[in-house]
Amino acid sequence: MELSKAHVSAAVLILSVLEACALDSYSAAVYEHNVILSEDTEIPVSPEDALALMNKNMDILEGAIKEAARQGAHIIVTPEDGIYGWRFTREAIYPYLEDIPDPEVNWIPCTDPKRFAPAPVQERFSCMARNNSIYVVANIGDKKSCNSSDPSCPSDGRYQYNTDVVFDSEGKLLARYHKYNLFRGETQFNFPKEPETVTFETPFGKFGIFTCFDILFHDPAVVLVSKLQVDTVLFPTAWMNVLPFLTAVEFHSAWAMGMGVNLLSANTHNVGLAMTGSGIFTPDGPIACHYDTETEEGCLLIAELSSHPCLSPTYPLAVNWSSYATSIKKFPEEKNTFTGAVRRDIFTFSELRHKAGNYTVCQRDLCCHLIYRMSDKSKDEVYVLGAFDGLHGSLIKYHWQICTLLKCKSTDLKSCGQPVEAAQTKFDMFSLSGTFGTNYVFPEVLYSGVHLAPGEFEVLRDGRLKSKHSSSKPLLTVTLFGRHYEKDPPHPLRTSP
């Protein structure tokens, strides 16, 4: 009986210690890195030359990690492709890869580097974490040997994966994630056979992780948030900005708001490829973000955020995205509509011909409603209300439903939908809604110069995206970006090698 009491007392003590160690908030860091690239990504180099290039990039990342730790950050995220770059052939990427074990092996590479096959990259990242007492998230390549007993084994006898790793503050390999949704140019890597939903617990919340293109798909992104209920998503990315809806800071901030989760987004930086845009995003909007198309400099962002955002009194209430748009008396649908292309997607547009008004534009099952008033419309600028309901993409197709108020590139209506970064017209108010067939809708407001609008708009429970007051800057776009995952066709490339 006494032994039982002792066990109970010990359990209570352990629980008390764990509760005392739990943090309501924490400091997070992301680093946007201008990657030092290989001169030739088509010809394989020696393992020594590959490691030399990776060490050059890790030298820079280590400086950012040390500075983040010095400023009190608990965790730092570094970019996808951050140690060697991109656009390799399958053979050329191989010298850069390491065999990354399952984290269940309970391994600290920094203190036990010879336990498995040589892994100097894992050892170095592990030591960065351990020596600075900070969680480190990095993107490296994983290789896994296979043979003819596996009918899916590639002809060269190995799988190659785009991989994220997480080391805890003691340098232990805590998590490993193989990117599931490869972008069309990532032919150097294999698709995992099944999507991986990788989560882990820390004293400052429950974390999940995925990579770049994954954010546009149901698996694993939605599963991590909606089913596994992570507090924060770690997001290494190599994101090429695409206006008007898919600049990095614009969409990643909107995704965090729409999903009700923290998102730590670290992008690569390459002005020539339009790669920039990193941030620390929350359900309430961005806390810190960086977008720079002028310089070649990297950038470290650090901010304090809630460990459990869903417990915050400001946590957004659930939204019925079609409630308002389906319940109101329909505005007269515009007769003078026209079609225009946003890249390859054919939108139905209607010009906002007056300084204020009510408009409705429909395409297929989606009707978009807009109420607006401009402050002082520039005569040299044209704005339109647009709707798109269909499949996006040339090879990998996925279903979008989009309602958007956007500025055209010129007064020529044929320019509507083309990328534009500057505007002059401010709005006194706007209210945008749509008859969405999905609960996954992401609210975007983008100002002139590709600036976000934190605190200047709100999403009502009935699905309206509304301004809180007059816009502080000229407006580029107001968008409700819906993803209808159920209508996505089968993936054409995710087949056995």
Automatic annotation (TrEMBL):
InterPro entries, per database record: Biotinidase-like_euk, Biotinidase/VNN, C-N_Hydrolase, C-N_Hydrolase_sf, Vanin_C
Domain CN hydrolase, first and last residues per copy: 31-307
One Pfam family hit: CN_hydrolase
Residue stretches in coiled coil: none
Domain of life: Eukaryota
Key words of the record: Glycoprotein, Hydrolase, Signal
Signal peptide: 1-22
Family named by the database record: Belongs to the carbon-nitrogen hydrolase superfamily. BTD/VNN family.
Protein name as catalogued: Pantetheine hydrolase VNN2-like
Source organism of this protein record: Apteryx mantelli (North Island brown kiwi)
